[in-house]
Structure prediction request, 755 residues.
Amino acid sequence: MAETTGSLTRRTFLASTAAAAYGLGGTLPALADVNWKKYAGTKIGVNLIKSPRGDVLQKFEKEFTDLTGIQVSSEQTPEQQQRQKAVIELNSGSPSFDVIHISYHVQKRQFEKANWLADISAFMKNPELTDASLTESDFSQAGLLYAKNPQGQMLSLPFSVDYWMVYWNKDLFAKKGLSYPQTFEDMVKAAEALTDTKEGTYGFVARGLKNANVPVWTSFLLGYGVDPVDANGNLMTDGPEAIEAARLYQRLLTKSAPQGVAGFNWSECQSAFLQGKVGMWLDGVGFAPPLEDPEKSRVVGKVGYGVMPRGPKAQASATFGDGIGVTSASKNKEAAYLYCQWAISKIMGARLLQAGGGVPFRLSILNDPEVRKGVKMPPTWIDAVAESGKISKLGLPVVQPVTEFRDIMGIALTNLLSGGDPAAELKKATEQFKPILERSEKA
Amino acid sequence: MVTIVEQQPSQLTETAPATGARPRSSYWPFVVPAVAVVGSVIIFPWAFTVWMSFHEWMVGGTRRFSGLSNYARLLSDERFLASIGHTFVYTLLAVVLPLIFGTLAALIFNSRLPFRGVLRGLFVMPMMATPVAIALVWTMMFHPQLGVLNYLLSLVGIPPQSWVFNPVTVIPSLVLVETWQWTPLVMLIVLGGLAAIPSEPYESAAIDGANVFQRFRYITLPMVAPFLMVAVIIRTIDALKSFDIIYAITQGGPGTASETINLYLYSVAFAYYDVGYGSAIAVVFFGLVIALSLVMLHLRQKTKWTDIQGGA
Prediction:
């Protein structure tokens, strides 16, 4: 834990990174080859999403300057506004920043098509710029899928991953003599058994608000063995599997969820679960810390952290993530790359994980027993995170108009909560989205 | 007298060269600053928006002239058509309710109440608060399980409501927030109108034996009508462009149940980055606002005191 509080010197940074690399490769890498001071005096701009990830980077920014001599001017902006600002600035051709923090599940395709990110593949192979412990094989599969473009170029470094898991209230389950569900069918049965509207207890909660609700449905869809868009770019959103997944969504959220769930985003779901009146909550792993905070939660010590139950065809955890990359317009690409490398280094990843602010894509951090010891969350949480990583699948299609996809499909899903027919709603939404997707691919 | 007044301008024009006035062309430098400001902040953005609306234009993509295709797309865009309906329902309620409650409040505060000044001060406080802060507080109050509103309903035996979390009740619930915030504005305007009414009509009415309702209906209401019309115009403009409260509380949801034209326009332009189509929506919205403004200006003319007094 000393790592999380003490200031970082060049020596401690190299030592911790060397230890990680040694643990992975069995041989000491030529760390001395990385010339951290080579770009001393350079000034770089960093555009971050307002989040625990951005907070950690800004908090320890001075350590990076001490290590490299590179001056950093960073800015955190709320997610939606950061995306707009980034697009406008990058589109102008002369952005005010060299490093950009991106949400892969929303921006990946857009950034690739517009060529806004620099190819850092060559930097990663350059021992003068890249620590030997930083290899592609150290990233989880989902991370690599997100970071590389279809040509196999590395356009960013995978930063933080968000797997979807099920938070469950062990007390409510015990009162009904239930155990954690292993399949979708069990989950429905448990949710309905736990629901008692007179008592104000509900079996299940998840996002009902349009746009935000789509990952809930895709989480189910992946369990039916289908991705929302197949490898050939065809929409799979109105097929039999999609309809079954929508029926499951409709049943869980209309029969076992609290009143008003159609307007719930993650924060309302979290509030409901924190009160101890909800049996299961399906959402990202990053929302766990408040559940174990006695000042905010009535379920401290009572929360089970479950891996997504198995669907009829597959068991999959919908995965989302952040990356950090160098803009192609940057005049300080090497210095900016050093910042990115520092941001995903072992010590920074450990800080992120231990504070519960995010889960690094790097396996060497996640699997390090020393790092795991410092994690404040219960061991079952980190076990669920690690297990989810093994069944991870991308939670949203990698298409440019992903926001429209989420809005259009999200409206259909919300309509289901007012009694809409899953087949009709999905057909209508798919027909509506199809031309938008085609137009974006042609653009 | 009339003849002299009518002749004055021509006399001035004719005598101008003799008094050493500058030629007409020398006045233009004084107009330039105003023309430059109006041109750059009003006319250019407006013309550019119209120009963009004739293009298929995604941020980060290529621009292509597409004629009226964006406008044609609007006609079959269910989400856009629904947003027009939501905008008008929202605007209607957000104008009428503050108008009714604001007028009632003005009548109460116009009477000789104890602590009238303090109570007036307290009453106008919602108007001074930041909309987004208000929205966050109301979001918590609306929460079906944890919100105070359902708790208050439970005290009088009314079952819990879903408020902004239900497509049916979302717009009335949002209007509740608007009404709470903007009733004081209407109250202040009407209070100004009440203060301007002379006492003689009331004295005459009292001699004629008019009761309270008749005095309100035949004296107060017609006399404050011009002030009410000002309140209607201000509230209509404000409700039509309302964005912050709706976005912060529902983001247009559940589904698209509270998505007004403004919110849809924002999504298209800044979330989907389809600036061409977004511009077409902005142009149509602008046309609707202009049409509504003309109707209101016409009504404003009709409520002038001169009309009430028989066109004097």
